[in-house]
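Progress note, sequence design subtask.
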């Protein structure tokens, strides 16, 4: 007879871990606070007056705060998984849940669900609150592409969280992942991805943000761009699964 724990208690234990770790929990909260807060400040400062005050793509500009919220999403994924590599926590987790695949998938599932919920709230509030202070150039929920962009914002933040979590499982270091991914999306991607052609459009953040664009990004459509980000995230998650299965705790 199998003695494996059913999925629900394992998922609940992962939620308790996340809620108990202040840094991880506040990273999750920051996904919402940073995305919405910076969007409102930017819209209030630049949005009133000229209709093009927020740039050539008003829909993408409506999610400017996402550039900061994604940093919190990366931190959430990295810190949540890196906690398993401190003070023998992974050995304790695997004692409670000996099936490494179940343990790993439960953690990834909980991170994904929490990031998606925070991301969807962030997407809706970012759009509504940001456009409320835009003045004459405001978009309305229901304008072409707006619902897709709101949904895309939540999916984007979830996939960036999972990308960071999977990479942390591979490298066993949240610091290393933060040191790689944050400069990557803040600096390298903007430099290399400035053009909509070439390899730049396939970078995870550039491709994923096609969901929030009113105009097509190069030859990548909105859903194709999200698919590229999903492949990056899936690769990292699979790599993390192999690492957890094969390495000593």
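Output:
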């Amino acid at each position: 007879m199998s003695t494996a724990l059913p999925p629900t208690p394992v998922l609940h234990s992962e939620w308790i871990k996340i809620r108990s770790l202040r840094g991880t929990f506040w990273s999750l909260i920051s996904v919402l606070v940073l995305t919405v807060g910076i969007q409102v400040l930017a819209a209030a400062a630049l949005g009133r007056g000229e209709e093009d005050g927020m740039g050539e793509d008003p829909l993408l500009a409506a999610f400017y705060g996402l550039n900061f919220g994604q940093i919190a999403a990366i931190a959430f994924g990295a810190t949540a998984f890196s906690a398993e590599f401190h003070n023998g926590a992974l050995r304790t987790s695997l004692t409670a849940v000996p099936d490494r695949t179940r343990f790993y998938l439960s953690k990834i599932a909980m991170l994904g669900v929490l990031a998606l919920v925070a991301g969807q709230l962030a997407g809706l509030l970012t759009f509504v609150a940001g456009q409320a202070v835009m003045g004459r150039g405001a978009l309305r929920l229901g304008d072409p592409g707006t619902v897709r962009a709101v949904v895309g914002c939540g999916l984007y933040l979830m996939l960036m969280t999972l990308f960071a979590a999977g990479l942390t499982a591979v490298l066993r270091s949240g610091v290393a992942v933060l040191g790689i991914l944050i400069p990557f999306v803040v600096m390298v991607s903007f430099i290399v991805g400035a053009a909509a052609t070439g390899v730049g459009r396939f970078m995870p953040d550039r491709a994923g943000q096609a969901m929030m664009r009113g105009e097509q990004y190069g030859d990548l459509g909105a859903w194709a761009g999200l698919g590229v980000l999903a492949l990056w995230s899936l690769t990292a998650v699979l790599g993390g699964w192999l690492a957890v299965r094969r390495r000593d705790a």
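The mean pLDDT is 87. Work on this subtask will continue into the next period as scheduled.
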